[in-house]
């Protein structure tokens, strides 16, 4: 009877950090982000909340499937759910680094590490639950685009990088 609560909890969890990241950095989007030089293929601002809602929902439900298949918080769950938790923490850290701190260097390092952890999560989940791994594919694809976008913004806005002190 309690399984629905676990399903909902795992599915909602990624949205929490995503919402907080947006909430605390939302004022920086019109004030700062809009003024950055961005490539022509940069998605419209309207696309991001829709995309992240779908990606977080799929990712969260997938984490429930893995947790359930491994019998909850067992020793077998340490690596696959540890990778998931680590990539989720880096995912949540990106908006405060990029928008809040306006630190393009740290945001770039964050997303490159996030890519590795997200791919590691997908690979570790594949042997546990194929559907869970497949549910991460759109996320990994979106991260590839977001990484390319972060790199381009980092390269095309050198004045936004901290000056080297001599």
UniProtKB/TrEMBL annotation:
The keyword Cytoplasm does not apply. Signal peptide: none annotated. Gene3D superfamilies: TspO/MBR protein. Keywords: Membrane, Transmembrane, Transmembrane helix. Coiled coil: none annotated. One of its GO terms (cellular component) is mitochondrial outer membrane. The keyword Transmembrane applies. It comes from the Eukaryota. It is a multi-pass membrane protein. InterPro entries: TspO/MBR-related_sf (IPR038330), TspO_MBR (IPR004307). It is found in: Membrane. Pfam families: TspO_MBR. The chain crosses the membrane at residues 6-25, 46-65, 77-94, 106-128, 134-154. Belongs to the TspO/BZRP family. This is TSPO protein. It comes from Notiomystis cincta.
């Amino acid at each position: 009877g309690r399984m629905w609560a676990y399903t909902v909890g795992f599915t909602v969890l990624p949205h929490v950090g995503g919402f907080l990241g947006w909430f605390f950095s939302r004022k920086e989007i019109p004030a700062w982000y809009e003024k950055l030089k961005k490539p022509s293929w940069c998605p419209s601002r309207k696309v991001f909340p829709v995309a992240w809602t779908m990606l977080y929902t799929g990712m969260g439900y997938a984490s429930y499937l893995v947790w359930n298949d491994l019998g909850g918080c067992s020793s077998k769950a340490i690596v696959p759910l540890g990778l998931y938790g680590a990539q989720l923490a880096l995912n949540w850290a990106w908006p405060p680094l990029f928008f809040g701190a306006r630190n393009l260097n740290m945001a770039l390092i964050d997303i490159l590490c996030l890519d590795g952890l997200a791919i590691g999560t997908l690979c570790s989940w594949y042997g546990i639950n194929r559907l869970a791994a497949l549910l991460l594919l759109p996320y990994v694809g979106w991260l590839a685009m977001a990484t390319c976008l972060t790199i381009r913004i980092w390269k095309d806005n050198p004045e936004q990088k901290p000056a080297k002190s001599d």
